[in-house]
Automatic annotation (TrEMBL):
One Pfam family cited in the UniProt record for this chain: F-box
SMART domains: FBOX
PROSITE patterns in the cross-refs: FBOX
PANTHER family: F-BOX DOMAIN-CONTAINING PROTEIN (PTHR34223:SF101), OS11G0201299 PROTEIN (PTHR34223)
Record's protein name: F-box domain, leucine-rich repeat domain superfamily, F-box-like domain superfamily
Residue intervals of the F-box domain: 9-57
Record organism: Helianthus annuus
InterPro entries in UniProt: F-box-like_dom_sf (IPR036047), F-box_AtFBL13-like (IPR053781), F-box_dom (IPR001810), F-box_SCFL_complex_component (IPR053197), LRR_dom_sf (IPR032675), LRR_FXL15/At3g58940/PEG3-like (IPR055411)
Length: 233
């Protein structure tokens, strides 16, 4: 059995890095990290995985998840582009830990970010707001952003930003609150989905994006707005 394992390792080690990293992207991150003990060839390979997926489902506490995220990101090979960062939270989750992970994610030069939080019925009554500040470091690299918060009120996740995101082409928000000028800071949007969201600061939602080709608006406070302007020229 040991000889078979060695031969299998030898065959895999002969593959190019790009292919090995693609293989590692399809396994759980913890298992990918465990491959570092196989041989010197594998020791640091996991630090270059281009797609990172974290889920609280595999951790007994949010603090353990936070420690794991910090461990992975602090050892990451910063010479390799991070293509996507995904975070899935299940059940009740600690506000401060969630905030810290989100801040860390948006501080990276990442192309795609997805956050999905799933709460049990009634948990949102005591859940503090989670603010999602888009940082300057990702403003020129972020191409796709997805924020989904189960079925809790849209006030619980607040999307904020102080700079333009010229590379962002796809934005999917579900039960998220954002201020009225946020969309204008994403001038190159092509795909926009807003479900159960809330706009703060104005009774009017203005969408003026010449490149917009797919638009979906459903549920939520949009139907209580005084008017909605759509400029798709």
């Amino acid at each position: 059995m040991e000889c078979d394992t060695v031969r299998m390792d030898d065959r895999l080690s002969g593959l190019p890095d790009d292919l090995l990293l693609k293989i590692l992207s399809f396994v759980r991150l913890k298992d990918a990290i465990r491959t570092s003990v196989l041989s010197p060839r594998w020791r640091y390979l996991w630090t270059s995985i281009p797609h990172l997926i974290f889920s609280s489902h595999y951790f007994s506490t949010m603090d353990k998840l936070s420690d794991f995220v910090t461990h992975v990101l602090s050892r990451r090979n910063d010479q390799v582009r991070l293509s996507s960062f995904k975070l899935y939270l299940h059940g009740e989750h600690a506000h401060d830990v969630t905030q810290r992970i989100m801040n860390h994610a948006f501080s990276l030069n990442v192309h795609r970010v997805k956050f999905k939080g799933l709460l049990e019925t009634g948990q949102w009554y005591t859940m503090p707001k989670v603010k999602v500040p888009l940082s300057l470091s990702c403003s020129q690299t972020l191409k796709r952003l997805t924020l989904i918060q189960g079925s809790c009120p849209c006030d619980e996740i607040v999307l904020t930003s102080a700079q333009e995101f010229s590379s962002l082409t796809t934005l999917h928000l579900r039960f998220v609150s954002f201020y009225d000028g946020f969309l204008s800071m994403c001038p190159n949007l092509k795909n926009l989905t807003l479900v159960g969201c809330k706009v703060t600061g104005s009774p009017v939602l203005t969408i003026c994006h010449p490149r917009l080709s797919n638009l979906t608006i459903d549920k939520g406070d949009f139907w209580t707005l005084l008017s909605m302007w759509l400029h798709l020229d």
